[in-house]
Amino acid sequence: MLGIEAEVRAVSIEEARGADKMAQVVLATPEILDQLAGIPAEVIAINNIFDLGELGEKLKATLS
Amino acid sequence: MLSSYFGAGSIVTQDTSPSFADAVSQSVLLLVESGKAQLSYVDEVLESLKALGPYFVIAPGLALAHAKPSNAVLAPGMSLLRLAEPVISGSANDPVSLIFSMCSPNASEHIEMLGDFGRLMSTDEVMNNLLNASAVSVIEDILLKKAL
Fold it and tell me: Domain range holding B38?
């Protein structure tokens, strides 16, 4: 869809907040955005994780 | 494979639940009763819900209750509580009728399960069929046979 390859991992909030940059982009539901403030990654709020349109649109905007 | 995650008796329908937390508790308990997790996993999920809010309401009308992989997880597992009368969780995706629960022993299994689940649920047809299914056997057909 976006023509990119990505390694996708599921991580806990604690892991996402770790000191080392572990990802270029972190996807999360809106409820935990505050917990992810300040991490060294682009954080994208996803309302409907099954909506490929929403995912594609937000990833495209972030990665462009 | 998604169908292998649902143990015996892990899919239940009922009319109502007193609250979203009660519905989550009941759904996660189905994982315990089907041998996928220990009772302490229910507390782990409810503690996450209390601390973070309804972060696992991941699509309109659908929750995927879970906590991070832990020793309380015995095997990869999923369950479903479907409510005829949806409950309010506080999420933008309210109201919630489908309360799935998930437990995974490690992060790699976790993402594999999410992928399997996402592939099944990413069509409107499946969501609508689950909401309108007349019996547990119909839900089982949707979740277990389509996911083969």
Answer: 15-86
